[in-house]
From TrEMBL, chain A:
GO terms for molecular function: glutathione transferase activity. The lineage of its organism: Eukaryota, Metazoa, Chordata, Craniata, Vertebrata. It is an enzyme of class 2 (transferase). Its EC number is 2.5.1.18. This is glutathione transferase. One of its GO terms (biological process) is xenobiotic metabolic process.
TrEMBL record, chain B:
Keywords: Transferase. PANTHER family: GLUTATHIONE S-TRANSFERASE, GLUTATHIONE S-TRANSFERASE A1. Pfam families: GST_C, GST_N. The keyword Transferase applies. InterPro entries: Glutathione-S-Trfase_C-like, Glutathione-S-Trfase_C_sf, Glutathione_S-Trfase, Glutathione_S-Trfase_N, GST_alpha, GST_C, GST_superfamily, Thioredoxin-like_sf. Its EC number is 2.5.1.18. It catalyses: RX + glutathione = an S-substituted glutathione + a halide anion + H(+). The lineage of its organism: Eukaryota, Metazoa, Chordata, Craniata, Vertebrata. Belongs to the GST superfamily. Alpha family. This is Glutathione S-transferase. Residues 3-83 form the GST N-terminal domain.
């Protein structure tokens, strides 16, 4: 049996955070190798470790997986977080892809110039409260179950929780109009693996600080 | 048994084209309802047919599926174009994400100003020949088989073929340094000639 998965990325949320969340929710311990400077990324490229010269990269089960979605799909499949059949998977995929669109704008918010931040935040909140959150509130309302798909934890639930928490960091009352999402958040946060991940000292990364942005950008550009 | 899948999108390629390709490669006949004006899109939204108010949307097996990747994953899974196990699926996912990134750059071109477009075409050509195509050429070289994963046609091959044809439209000799991709191109085209023959949407490119 191979050792723990090894995650290769900068010491920040970015595109790796969803992977950290999913592994944590699955109860899988992992190691991280942080890129601190451009040379670290260069070394991975020269080693031939990065299929498309990009991170995230996760060493797992003898593979060097790249491409966030491929990594998440593999973890979800391996740890039974991907539904029981094709149709459940279709629902999970639809929900996750919708949330990925929201996640992209949330993730990029920290990197916006100061004079654009307010407008950007308004756009994020508009999309969240009018396009995305109502969908998931309705899903939970319609079937009355604790989880989004198949009455069982899946990567859709993990993705939803991750997005909700980040939205609340940007605007604490983001869930004001969504009572079922509020109870979803409370329930999910209390699940042992997730509770552990939400505690200080876990692999969960904080919001990026202004002062760290130049360093992170320098690695990739 | 459900009827044919029904695709809702504009007449253009956009995000629906990969879906048309995959259905055609799987030998699945489908119908299309084209969005011709804003009111058509509004109607779909008001009907509650679009989960996130967006197209592509595909009616298939009693579902109204949205989100391109979700739709493609479902079709691939249903028609055995997604590998035989988790590891093969991981490889297919990786390869498809690469071609998605490449095709995404090309799809954005029509909406760009002339000077930006020219710069991006150069970038696309560079990425295609230094980041993406070498990966697929090497994959075919290393295992010496006809298909990218598991010695069997998969979504990865169809997606690569689409990406190759799209890039060739930008630069016709883009495969000059990739002999194995050239062979793959012809092989799959030949394999699919019966399918594409029955698919007017692809014929009328």
């Amino acid at each position: 049996m191979s050792g723990k998965p090894v995650l290769h990325y900068a010491n920040t949320r970015g595109r790796m955070e969803s992977v950290r969340w999913l592994l944590a929710a699955a109860g899988v311990e992992f190691e991280e190798k942080f890129l601190e400077k451009k040379e670290d990324l260069q070394k991975l490229k020269s080693d031939g470790s990065l299929l498309f010269q990009q991170v995230p990269m996760v060493e797992i089960d003898g593979m060097k997986l790249v491409q966030t979605r491929a990594i998440l799909n593999y973890i979800a499949g391996k740890y039974n977080l991907y539904g029981k059949d094709l149709k459940e998977r279709a629902l999970i995929d639809m929900y996750v892809e919708g949330m990925a669109d929201l996640y992209d704008i949330i993730m990029n918010h920290d990197f916006k110039p100061a004079n654009e931040k307010e407008k950007d935040l308004a756009n994020i909140m508009d999309k969240a409260t009018n396009r995305y959150l109502p969908v998931f509130e309705k899903v939970l309302k319609d079937h009355g179950h604790d989880f989004l798909v198949g009455n069982k934890l899946s990567k859709a639930d993990v993705s939803l929780l991750e997005n909700i928490l980040w939205l609340e960091e940007l605007k604490p009352d983001a869930l004001a109009k969504f009572p079922l999402l509020q109870s979803f958040k409370a329930r999910m946060s209390n699940m042992p693996n997730i509770k552990k991940f939400l505690q200080p000292g876990s692999a969960k990364k904080p919001l990026i600080q202004e002062k760290d942005i130049p360093n992170v950008m320098a690695i990739f550009h | 048994m459900a009827g044919k899948p029904k695709l809702h999108y504009t007449r253009g390629r956009g995000k629906m084209e990969s879906i048309r390709w995959l259905l055609a490669a799987a030998g699945v006949e489908f119908e299309e309802e084209f969005i011709e004006k804003k009111e058509d899109l509004e109607k779909l939204r008001n009907d509650g047919s679009l989960l996130f108010q967006q197209v592509p949307m595909v009616e298939i097996d009693g579902m109204k599926m949205v989100q391109t990747r979700a739709i493609l994953c479902y079709i691939a899974g249903k028609y055995n174009l997604y590998g035989k196990d988790l590891k093969e699926r991981a490889w297919i996912d990786m390869y498809v994400e690469g071609t998605t990134d490449l095709m995404g750059m090309i799809m954005a071109l029509p909406f760009q100003a002339a000077d930006v477009k020219e710069k991006n075409i150069a970038l696309i050509t560079e990425r295609a020949t230094t980041r993406y195509f070498p990966v697929y050429e090497k994959a075919l070289k290393d295992h010496g088989q006809d298909y990218l994963v598991g010695n069997k046609l998969s979504w990865a091959d169809i997606h690569l073929l689409e990406a190759i044809l799209m890039t060739e439209e930008l630069k016709s000799d883009i495969l000059s340094a990739f002999p194995l991709l050239q062979v793959s191109d012809h092989l799959i085209s030949a394999w699919n000639v019966t399918h594409t023959f029955h698919c007017p949407a692809l014929k009328a490119r």
